[in-house]
Amino acid sequence: MKWVTWDQAIVVAVASGALVIVLRRLPRTRVRSSIISACTEVSLLSVLYAIWRLARVLPLDRPEGAIERARDINQLQQDLFFPSELSLQHFVLDHQWLAQATNFYYAILHIPALVIFLIWLFIRHRDMYSHWRNCLAILTGACLVIRFIRVAPPRFLPDLGYVDLATRFGLSVYGPVGTGVSDQFAAMPSIHVGWAAVVSFGIVSASTSRWRWIFLGHLMLTMIAVSATGNHWWLDGIVAIVLLVMALCIERRIRDKIHMSKNIRLGI
């Protein structure tokens, strides 16, 4: 699998920023304002994406301690009576169509779903867009920091019976260690689950449709996919969701403080 590279994202960011500068010199119209807002967000998100991809090239793809921590997580989950990822993986492998669908869901849908969500939010619920964009940035930043603690995914423990579905059905986002889109030993926390939680919770929060609860299924399916493919432990996803909740609280507190400061300056 090949995704947009960090340097391509920077090109998009610069081009979008340049377009904003040009448009600001033109007469004010509603269309101009809308385009400026959209280009500003494209530029900002492109920079954030570039940072995420740049973190991939840091010299961190090393196994020191990763396997041992994976075994510790596996033991902790057993002590907490978590259901086994291995049983889920065996069930999926018993049905080839389901294994292929699960592998496709893991490899393909997380970024397009996030992009579509952000576009929908920007167009339909502009008042809530910045809130969820900020939470996404905080969550992703926290994941990038925690990745310095190396943790191997279940597929690196074949002695326990785990397999890598991508080696059987293709669509691998990793390849050999040190290559691929994502970091091999950054299983904790699962950014797949974190981004899926942003999409699911964001839709439920922003939409008023009675059908909005259906989109919680995206988070549930992602949790299943990351575990069944052997790419994450249950705790990887749980930690990602906890980080999102913390990001929501942090963003809300910062927003309240900014609002309070404005009121003080205005004498309200």
From TrEMBL:
<feature type="transmembrane region" description="Helical">
    <location>
        <begin position="185"/>
        <end position="204"/>
    </location>
</feature>
<feature type="transmembrane region" description="Helical">
    <location>
        <begin position="6"/>
        <end position="23"/>
    </location>
</feature>
<feature type="transmembrane region" description="Helical">
    <location>
        <begin position="135"/>
        <end position="152"/>
    </location>
</feature>
<dbReference type="Pfam" id="PF14378">
    <property type="entry name" value="PAP2_3"/>
</dbReference>
<dbReference type="InterPro" id="IPR026841">
    <property type="entry name" value="Aur1/Ipt1"/>
</dbReference>
<feature type="transmembrane region" description="Helical">
    <location>
        <begin position="233"/>
        <end position="250"/>
    </location>
</feature>
<keyword id="KW-1133">Transmembrane helix</keyword>
<feature type="transmembrane region" description="Helical">
    <location>
        <begin position="104"/>
        <end position="123"/>
    </location>
</feature>
<dbReference type="GO" id="GO:0016020">
    <property type="term" value="C:membrane"/>
</dbReference>
<feature type="transmembrane region" description="Helical">
    <location>
        <begin position="211"/>
        <end position="227"/>
    </location>
</feature>
<keyword id="KW-0472">Membrane</keyword>
<feature type="domain" description="Inositolphosphotransferase Aur1/Ipt1">
    <location>
        <begin position="72"/>
        <end position="249"/>
    </location>
</feature>
<feature type="transmembrane region" description="Helical">
    <location>
        <begin position="35"/>
        <end position="52"/>
    </location>
</feature>
<protein>
    <submittedName>
        <fullName>Unannotated protein</fullName>
    </submittedName>
</protein>
<keyword id="KW-0812">Transmembrane</keyword>
<dbReference type="InterPro" id="IPR052185">
    <property type="entry name" value="IPC_Synthase-Related"/>
</dbReference>
